[in-house]
Amino acid sequence: MLISTDHLWKTLSDIREHLHFLSDFFTTFPEGEVFLVGGAVRDLLLNRETKDYDFLIRSVPANQLETFLRKRGKVSWVGKNFGVFKFIPHQNPLDEAIDIALPRTESSFSQGGYRDFSIVSDPELPVEQDLKRRDFTINAMAADLKTLSLIDPFQGVQDLKSGQLRTVGDPALRFSEDSSRLLRGLRFASQFDLNVEEDTWTVLKSSMSALNRKRNDGVYIVPRETIARELIKAMVSHPVRAYDLWDESGAFSALIPELLQMKACPQPQNYHSEGDVWVHTRLALSQLLTQEFQKEFPESYDAEVVLSVLFHDIAKPLTIQTPEKDGVDRIRFHNHDTVGAELTRKIANRLKLSSYPKESRYHIDEDHLAWLVAKHLVLVHGEIDKMRAATIEKHFLSPNHPGRKLLQLIYCDGKASVPESLEGHVLHYSIVKERIEKITALSMERAKMPKPLLNGREIMKAANMASGPEIGRYLDLIREEQLSGRISTRTEALQFLKKIT
Questions:
Q1: What's the rounded Cα separation, in Å, for the pair 483 and 71?
Q2: Which residues of 213-248 are buried (b: 16+ CB within 10 A; e: fewer)?
Q3: pTM of this prediction?
Q4: Confidence band of 235 (pLDDT split at 50, 70, 90)
Q5: Dihedral angle at the C-alpha atoms of 400, 401, 407, 410, nearest 10 degrees?
Q6: How many Å apart are CA 88 and CA 228, to the nearest integer?
């Protein structure tokens, strides 16, 4: 639901009050005009929090504007290709720099490169002309901070009300100017639960192949980092909606065709009555949006969790064995976890999925992502109630691995596996959760997770052994005794070592 006009007026007033340089601006330049533009206006109308402030300033020459800004904060100029000042005010500094620009027109001089625009800035250009160059109507609105009014020449408000995503003007022209807009459109549709307008959707689907075009030097016109950012943001914002849209639009076909092999890939009915691998993956993604998941994992899921769910069964089509073809007792997918991890790593590298900074919710560590896919069956291999405490610690409590995320993946996978009987991955999850709680309780009694009582060198010296695989086995056995509470001192560990060697 959109906010009321009164609410919008109050919000714009609050922005003027919070950002002190705006009051100074209107005093210094009485004829000047300031407009909040782009996604911030859309987010305000949707009553969503935003820190992404983009301002457009009219009737003030660029050199005078720069002088004014430098007296009130830190300023940098973002090149001729963009014509934007990055500004961090001294007072009320924000987490990110504010974009401040003069009204401008753009003309594309390539076939879809988002940087390939000829830009002409003009402080006297009407704001409507600047909005005309933008991608979608919901991003082509401006809020006048002088008059506290809304400027909406392309009916962006109406599109928000009707839940529609539509390009500004001819969709073929908009997408040919910048092919990354194809994926931005899918992200907006996922993020704001919008239906893509018919003409926009038709052109969007027919234009997907443009994402793989290259320049004469072999470099992709649309950088893979840009594609990674759009995929990740869409999948995190609404995993199921993004999954469907990337499929239906042809984006998966163009960029991650390996996923499409999951369609019509059968699964054993006794373990997966929900359907084929594609259906199972969609159902697993849907678990991230449930109240049950949010209750089980109060922290927000992040990009590594979402993409591990997306890719966890990607190798099933490559490893499938059937009774008819291979003589096995039922449909099986031997080593699909390890093969899937290798394939996931290749895709992550190909699409530059590690494009966001480490502190971001959208960051992907390729090693973590591959590890999650490789380990998603850890509770299926063997009897979980007999799994060693040291093994549970290694997978779910070690700082060296994203164990909490592995739990989230296992939960989603289990909930999306609908066996003919009630037993299945969900039962496995419940058992391992209980055992993790017991180990954690033990560590809390001792203030923190106890350090190993012996290291490899100490074992070799005490047992008079050379380095080798046996040392690792003894380390695991001693750790098991420690985490189970049966030994707690170095002396007890040495005594236990003597018994087993």
A1: 61
A2: eeeeeeebbbbbebbbbbbbbbbbbbbbbbbbbbbe
A3: 0.84
A4: very high
A5: -150
A6: 28
Q: Is 408 exposed, middle or buried (0-12, 13-18, 19+ CB in 10 A)?
A: buried
> What is the model's pLDDT at position 82?
57
- Tell me how far the alpha carbon of residue 432 is from its chain's centroid: 27
Q: Hey, what are 18's tokens?
A: 């919070």
Cα 64 from chain centroid (whole Å) = 40
DSSP 119: E
Joined tokens for residue 67:
């002088």
pLDDT at 261: 97
- Give backbone dihedrals phi and psi of 37, rounded to 5 degrees, phi first: -130, 170
Q: What average pLDDT does the segment 105-109 reach?
A: 58
Rounded to whole angstroms, the Cα distance separating 149 from 127 reads 13
Residue 280 vs residue 275, higher pLDDT: 280
Which residue, among 229, 186, 228, has the nearest Cα to 207 in the 3D structure? 186
Q: Give backbone dihedrals phi and psi of 437, rounded to 5 degrees, phi first.
A: -65, -40
**Average pLDDT of span 325-347:** 95
Predicted local confidence at residue 149, as pLDDT: 92
- Cα–Cα distances in angstroms (integers) from residue 169 to residues 40, 173, 175, 209, 388, in the given order: 21, 8, 11, 22, 63
Give the closest residue to 167 by CA, choosing from 142, 138, 207.
Answer: 138
DSSP 3-state of 107: strand
As given in the structure block, the two tokens for residue 32 are 């000047």
Domain-by-domain residue ranges, the chain?
5-163, 268-445, 456-500
- Distance between CA atoms of 158 and 156, rounded to whole angstroms? 5
**In the structure, how many helices (H) and strands (E) does the chain have?**
26, 13
Report the sign of the C-alpha dihedral through residues 97, 226, 372, 473, in that order.
negative
Do 101 and 84 contact (CB within 8 A), yes or no? yes
| DSSP H or E run through 149 | strand 149-151
Q: How far apart are CA 476 and CA 493, in angstroms?
A: 12
- Report the length, in residues, of the chain: 501
The model's confidence at residue 336, banded by pLDDT at 50, 70 and 90, is very high
CATH superfamily for domain 5-163: Beta Polymerase, domain 2 (3.30.460.10)
CA distance 282 to 285: 5
